[in-house]
Amino acid sequence: MSSSVFQPVLLKHANRLINHGPTVLVTSAHEGKRNIMAAAWSMPVEFEPPRIAIVIDKTTFTRELIEGSGVFGICIPGATAIDLTYSVGRVSGRDHDKVSALDVPVVVGSETGVPLVESGCAAWLECRRIPEKHTEGAYDTCFAEVVSAAADPSVFSNGRWQFNDQNQALHTIHHLGGGVFATAGNIVQGKALL
């Protein structure tokens, strides 16, 4: 794989990578096994240190790997990764290594060691799980602290998304159901009324 164009994102800006509700890819690894899955429900919950919540069903292979390792990655796919995102959300990683089966190039996270997807993605976050026995026992919601983040500067720089005609391939995607996605990109600057 060629060298990365991704640049570090200040942790105080890491939550901005998912605050607009994109569909994400969740990567995980534990004891020589790895997985990648799609998730439509993730959100920031704290600013500093940055913490997130994400829904990962208790019965999934990804959840098993995360609980075993205590870490995971969140990769934010762009428009060119719609087919990959749809595909990894349709089959279980228990049956086969989806990363290998789909020939997904990954880099290894320097903070957590999780596989991270940069090709076709706009950004990624390395996360350390925050065990929450009461919540996790009853619900599928996981909490985590973001320990590292990076983004392609052509679409995210100076702590902000920069969607434009030149970077449409990296516009984030939003799952509408049944394999149908919308892309972000229609940027409108608000004006203060007071």
Please describe what this structure looks like.
The mean pLDDT is about 95. The longest helix has 9 residues, at about 60-70. The chain has four helices and 14 strands. The chain has helices spanning about 60-70, 80-90, 100, 135-140, and strands at about 5-10, 25-30, 35-40, 40-45, 50-55, 70-75, 105-110, 115, 120-130, 140-150, 155, 160, 175, 180-185. Helices cover about 15% and strands about 35% of the residues. The strands form four sheets. Strands 1, 2, 3, 4, 5, 6, 9 and 10 form an eight-stranded antiparallel beta sheet that branches. Strands 7-8 form a two-stranded antiparallel ribbon. It has a two-stranded antiparallel ribbon with strand order 11-12. It has one domain (about 5-185): Electron Transport, Fmn-binding Protein, Chain A (Pnp Oxidase, Chain A), CATH 2.30.110.10. The chain is mainly beta and about 190 residues long.
